[in-house]
# Entry
Amino acid sequence: MKPVRTIFTAQTPHRRLHSAIHHRRPAVSTALSSRARQPQRRFNSSLSVQANATPHSPEHAIFGTPSHHHKHPHRGHKTPLSQYHKLIESGVLHGDDHQTRIIQNLQDLHDKLIDYKPPKIPDLTQSNSFMSRLFPREIQLPSSPPESAPKGLYLYGDVGTGKTMLMDLFYKTLHPSITRKRRVHFHAFMIDVHKRIHAAKIAMGFNGGDPILPVARDLVKEAYVLCFDEFQVTDIADAMILRRLLETMVNFGVVCVMTSNRHPDDLYKNGIQRSSFIPAIELLKSQFEVTDLDSGTDYRRIPRALSQVYYNPLNVENKREIDKLFKSLTSADPSDPSIHHRTLHTWGRAIKVPESTSKIAKFRFDDLCGQPLSAADYLEVTKNFGTVFLLDVPKMGMDSKDRARRFITFIDACYESKTKLFVTSEVPVFQVFSDEPSASSSKPVSDHMRSVMDDLGLSGDVVGTSSMFTGEEEVFAFARACSRLVQMGSKEWAEMAGHH
# Structure
């Protein structure tokens, strides 16, 4: 018999005690979860192809209408291995022994999930009646994962190691019978979780209670296969939530595939009260197959012809060109004219959009990065607009560190949402972080920074030099933003992006 831990919750007495266990009732936060749910993000991989789209489910854009019947796990159905070989045959990817072994791990998990039946989710409903408080019911919650649950996958590696491509390959080929699934960027997932926890606390009211359990229950009801891209832990609040949330979801039978730029041992490395997060790290190492993607091959280093999406310097000629482009795109649909001063609302805050149609928006740099906006705000912008014009991006130095961080966060949001981006900037957009430190403060590029730039194929004359990015996480975010700007300036991206 599997070990269980017991919690007490209020429930009706006598005959209802046994029947309540076998009848599903809404959890505390179920009614609120639809309001709190973050819309699913678009796929990261530039290899993603959308077909058979329906207005009801973003993931059906890849899968089409799911079938609940299958006679053979592979017959007539795409698999990670078959799709990988097709990409090699078509010349999109070049064969790599190391990556082939990773694909085999994805294939093995794909096959196990076809026959996996997640356990029933326990009823966590509480009652506030007088009798139920006199006769509390014992609810047995699993204290370990189901024996039938396959281990998840934790794929880690530096920028350019193909993490997102591999995850998308796995998610797009999940068997159609697996309808409870979700693929989400981890940052968007945590925004969703914080909203759900807030809603659960409100629903619990004066009596209070543990909001993690109902939130985990709702998440498991929606998806027992979860794919997280760019898993990371950056603050104490997330660390404390994740420790219990991951444990509860895994014990409820959720199978996760995660990508990260860090080995589990390096997560939240210098965080406050890191010792409290260690159990979550041990969970990742014991319940996931931890796989290093670094093989010396950068899968982004494919020659691309840059299209004209970045304009510099800030002169009359480039202003005229970008205005002409904006007018051309926004006049394509007479029923959707450009309007001024549209307002978006997120987390109770209003975001002013200077000029936009329903799909295309134009901002000045100070509108987006000169204001105290967060990742949630930028995700709201990219969710609403498939194409964004960002004008007058300045060169940023030590005196612009906050604006530089916001710009990096905005670029990440555009990248994750497959947003088509047009930019006018003071210097080439890859060099906007290039400050000019005085001779007394000048220092050579750090070994770590040089290593990251080498890995990305970014030379100093492309990226420029900056003394404002010094910490390991800052350097990584800076280098990743430069790499993404290169990719988002490609002809491939311009042709593929912007179709929300």
The chain has two domains: 4-292, 310-496. The radius of gyration is 24 Å. The mean pLDDT is 76.
